[in-house]
Amino acid sequence: MKKHTIYIFLLAVLVLQSCYVYQKTPVSITEATNNGRVTMIVESSREYKLNEIIIVNEEYFGNCNGQVIHIEQLTDKQFYLLDVTKTVLANIAATVLVIALPLLAYAAFGIQ
C-alpha cells in the first residue's frame, strides 16, 4: 500500500508541476505585446504574471489571471518575455527527476 501511495504522489507531482522561465533582459512594451506570456515588474517590486497584453484605444492592458490591469497607470515598468527553450528544458528536467529519484533510491538503498 505504501508503495502505491508514493507512486501516486509522484505521478501527481509530475502532472501538476509546471515551471516558467523568463528571459533576463527586459524588453519594450511593444515587443511584450507581440509575445504571449510576460512577467512585468513595477517600481514597488510587485511582479505581475501577464497571460497577454492587449491594446485598446492606444492604451495597454494586461490580463493577469482574469484580472485586467491598466499598465499605463503603473510607473517604472519592466517587461520580461517567456524563454520557451529554458521553460521546456526545466520541465523535462523536473520530469526526469521525479521519475529517476525513486529508481536511484531503490537501486542504492533498496528502498521499496
Could you name the ranges where pLDDT drops below 50 across 5 or more consecutive residues? none
Could you state the order of secondary-structure elements as H and E? HHEEEEEEH
Largest sheet: 3 strands, antiparallel
How many structurally independent domains? 2
- Fraction of residues in β-strands: 15-25%
Helix content: 40-55%
CATH topology of the largest domain: SH3 type barrels
What is the CATH architecture assignment of the largest domain?
Roll
Q: Could you name the CATH class of the largest domain?
A: Mainly Beta
> Could you tell me the radius of gyration in angstroms?
20 Å
Distance between the termini: 11 Å
Number of discrete helical segments: 3
Question: What does this protein structure show overall?
Answer:
It is a single chain. With 112 residues, this protein is an alpha+beta fold. The protein has helices spanning 2-16, 29-33, 84-109, and strands at 38-41, 47-50, 52-56, 59-64, 67-70, 78-81. A 3-stranded antiparallel sheet has the order 2-1-6, with no helix packed on it. A 3-stranded antiparallel sheet has the order 3-4-5. α1 packs antiparallel against α3 (84-109). The longest helix has 26 residues, at 84-109. It is elongated and about 65 Å long.
Write out key terms for the chains shown.
6 strands; single chain; elongated; SH3 type barrels; alpha+beta
